Every structure is written in structure tokens, then in C-alpha cells.
Amino acid sequence: MIRTVDLRSDTVTLPTERMRLAMQQAEVGDSQKDEDPSVNRLEAMSAAMLGKEAAVFVPSGTMSNLSAIMAHCQRGDRAVVGQLSHILNSEFDGITTVAGVMPQPVPDYDGIPTPEDVEQAITPAGAGAPRTTLVCLENTHNWASGAVGTPEEIGAVVAVARKYGARVHVDGARLFNAAVALRIEAKELVREVDSVCFCLSKGLSAPVGSVLCGSKEFIDRARYARKILGGAMRQGGHMAAAGVVALEEMIDRLEEDHQNARYLAELVAGLPIVKVNPSRVESNMIVFEIDQEKMARGQFVKALDDRGVKVSTAGKTRLRMITHYGITREDVEYAARVVKEVCEPSADS
Questions:
Q1: Are the CB atoms for 175 and 187 separated by under 8 Å?
Q2: pTM for the complete prediction?
Q3: Most CB within 10 Å of its CB: which of 53, 130, 275, 322?
Q4: Comparing C-alpha atoms, which of 145, 144, 153 is closest to residue 85?
């Protein structure tokens, strides 16, 4: 029987037994009326952990980012976003068609864009063009090999945004990965920003949901945006209860995922076909290329899949492997052996 090692994403994580029990036993109410005690607990915990006044629980990370943009911007405004960011490449339609906001891309190949590039992209008020009211950052950065942004890098961008009266939102889908990698509290990463969201359903292993945090006034606007988007929930406490367990028990263990990712990158580095730099692995992601003169990308992916190792595509030329809860050191070693078999097939294979 072929072993299956699913490295496509940390969204494939399954809830822990404690989460399942908490969901079963959750005390619930009408969360649209703020009467669900489990949702209220999750939102209060999240706001406190990120040093913000308030929070709102939403079904998905995409909805949390779109709710934030709708709460920060008016139709016709511009938002500075990274060229490789999830907001631009996977959420563009919602930003433009629903929020009516124009994304202004800047280079973000190493994660957090430079303050110089951000300043160059900002259109100040009264310039005869749509005004820039928001700057969006991503931490960790998905397509930048899971790069970790530091408080200093974020603070430098915030200073530029403030200079022009713009606000700053952080897509922190994997924010706790960044905090664990830097060995600091998550609130230190977002102390100066106006809003931040994080996913419960990735490395934290809850089955569904994200949380958006910011000032009370901002969250009131975000709640209204969530309702417009169809995300006002009733007995959301069944889902929120798993999120509470995630925040209580699943943050520190993210370091295991980071160690496994670095180990996997080291094991496959130097193999023919594969182009990977282990020093670029800062969290739980390995983004790499293959030498397509020696093997087509699709052929490489299928060869891995036939042996039980699942990876995902990253843009037009790259591939991605993500370690997560449920992936053991033995799984990592098996995945590395499979990559080696594909790269260096034996003479009788």
C-alpha cells in the first residue's frame, strides 16, 4: 500500500480530538445578535492576543481580507498590494467588483515590500487620481516561500502609509507561524497596523474560520461588510469552539512544522532537477523550481503523486510543499526519498 503524504497545503489539516469534543459540547446562541458565548470568547481571545480592541469571526480568510478592505476603503480608492500577494492573485475579483477598490501592485519577492516601493506606489489625496487609502501586507508570505516579515520591516511601511494618511492591513493567514519563527508574541508583529486577520484552518488545524482584528470602530464596519458578503452567522459557536482550542493548544507546535520544512528542504537540496535553497525556508513552506529541460513540471508532479506525495503548483513555473499538523518526521523522510527516486531513477525502474 502506497503511503500518502499530502504537502499541498496546511489547509488539509484535520481537527484534533479536543477540537471535535469542544465543537460537540459548545455553548451556542445567535452570533449575528452577539449572543453566541463561544463566538464571543473566540473574538475576545483573538483581539487580546493581537493587541487590538475588537475582533470578528468570519468563515474564511478571503472574506476577512475583503471585509477589511470594504471597511477601510471607499469605492474608487486604491490599495497598495504585493505583486505576489494572495490578495492580488487569488482575491482580485472580490476587491475590484465587490469592494470597487483598485489594487496598486508593488514588488514583494522577499515578503514585506520596501518602504521606498510603497511610497512610490501611493497616490496622495488631491493628485488628480484615485487616492490611496490602504496598504496591504502579507505575513508569512505565501508565494515568497513563506517569508517572515519582522516588526521593523512592517513598521517602516506603516511610517510611509501614515505620512500619506493611508491605513495598513495585514493578511496574517499564517501570522502565528511568523511569530513562532521570530520567537515573539503575535501582537508585536501588528502593534502599529490598523487591522490584521489570521486563519484558524491552516497550521492551527481548526476545520474552518478566520478572525479579523482592529479598533472597535473598524470592526463595527467590518461586521457590516461581513453581512453584505453573506457571512453573518447564527450558531457559529460550534466552529468557534474549535478555534478557541486552536489558540490555546496549537500555536507553539508550529515550530515542529518549521523544523520539518527545513529538514525536507535540506534532504532534497542538491538533487538533479530540483532547484531549492534551504536558507529561504523560514517557516513551513518550501517553494522550488524544477529543471524543465530535464522533466516537465506536470510530469514531475504526477510522478510524485503516483508514489503518494502530493505537492501544489505555485504560479507558472514553481512548486510548493507545506508541512503541517499530521505530517511527521517519517513522512518528511518518505517524501524526500520519493523526490530522490523521481530525480534519480534507478537503471531497472
A1: no
A2: 0.95
A3: 322
A4: 144
The alpha carbons of the chain give a radius of gyration, in whole angstroms, of 21
Q: Which residue has the cell 514583494?
A: 108
Which residues make beta-bridge pairs with 56?
212
Per-domain boundaries in the chain:
5-11+253-343, 17-249
- Burial profile 19-52: b = 16 or more Cβ within 10 angstroms, e = fewer: beebbeebebbebbeeebbbbbbbbebbbebbeb
For residue 241, give the C-alpha cell. 469552539
Q: What is the pLDDT of residues 78-129, one digit of tens each?
A: 999 999 999 999 999 999 999 999 999 999 999 999 999 999 999 877 667 7
In this structure, of 72-76, 136-140, 270-274, 325-329, the range with the lowest mean pLDDT score is: 270-274
Which cell is 50 given? Answer: 493581537
pLDDT band at 347; cut points 50, 70, 90 = very low
Cell digits of residue 304? 510524485
C-alpha cell at 110: 522577499
Is the domain spanning 17-249 CATH 3.40.640.10? The answer is yes
Residue 93 in contact with residue 100, Cβ under 8 Å?
Answer: no
Asked if CATH classification 3.30.70.20 holds for the domain at 5-11+253-343, the reply, yes or no, is: no
* Amino acid letter, 70: M
SS3 state at 148: coil
